[in-house]
Amino acid sequence: MIEDNFIEISELRRRPQDTNRIMDMINQEFRDYFDELQRSGVRRVVAYSIFSGIVSYVLRNERNYTGSIDEKTQDLLNDLWEDNGVFFSLLRNFRIPNNRINQIFRDIISFTLRNIRNDYDDDELETGWSNWEDLGGILTSAPAVSSWEENRLDVFARGQNRALWHIWWDGSRWSDWEDLGGILITSPTAVSWGPNRIDVFGVGENQALWHKWWDGSRWSNWEDLGGVLTYAPAVASWQNNRLDVFGIGQNQSLWHKWWDGSEWSDWEDLGGVLTSPPAAVSWGPDRIDIFARGRNQSLWQKYWDGVRWSPWSDVGGGTITSGPAAASTGRNRLEIFARDDDNELIFRSWTGSRWTSWEDLDGIITSEPAAISWGGDRLDVFARGQNNHLWHIWRP
């Protein structure tokens, strides 16, 4: 059914907390609209996604229009028809008349214009990070991201049907979402070890590790790699055709399995007592850094230096309320992201000699983040927002 599929939303680039702030008011102000649409067969989550998409569209584009509120409302409505016709199509499929759809959307646009707050814009530009953008979808897990060349991003998440869903940035635009099948009980994880190659992992219904890959021309079938995992896995690659996969076992310790280019190893227990999914990243040949949340809710680290595994160490800095995400912008550089007590995205770096303090990047997120660097100091971070859409923030 339509409401069970991903809802594609384009050109939405604004902080999720501003969308959520206005949506909180819309939930109260337009309760009758939610009830009316529900009587027509439109589930509340679908109506919420459409209204949230309209709000985000207005926040992204309102500065491109002049005139009174009424004039801007009409111009935005006309362009919304052209840019996001899926919103209208969804409701027409429930036999809601065009004039009624127009009236509802006009009221949402007008309400948003009257409640925009821009008092933080200048400060946000000074941080070096973009505003958040809403990439749509209905996610039931945290996202995963990989990059196989400069200015290329492939993002994965579990959908409402528990299958793996995929969206990608090709250097100029975002694709639509596609369903890659499978049945996952956790978030996926993804990595690329070479041009046009992607390996994706998740935990299947049997709690084993499952694997699917893109070879440059097609997606493979899913394969079962065994094990018994209790959280989403993590994966890193430090050279061509090398994969190192990590998961949390039933004993709460970190387990490791690797592909050496010709065969998979057995699982090995790397110890620790962990309370979140792990994150893994490689900044050079034969180097892997692993992060997870410990029993004290702090960030913990373990690394492979080419010869041996280090002991687990508490990185400190305070508590986190999610598993971490890890990326690297260069040799002996690490960038870590997590969620804090306020459900906002936080960020810290290893400079090569010390850890920085956590920095607040705002946003209201409802999942572990995912992070990647595809070149230089560029960082792209993704998470699920309050509206269950995929949200994206980046540092140029």
Automatic annotation (TrEMBL):
Residues 196-395 form the PLL-like beta propeller domain. SUPFAM superfamilies: Fucose-specific lectin. This is Repeat uncharacterized protein DUF346. InterPro entries: PLL-like_beta-prop. It comes from the Bacteria. It comes from Mobilisporobacter senegalensis.
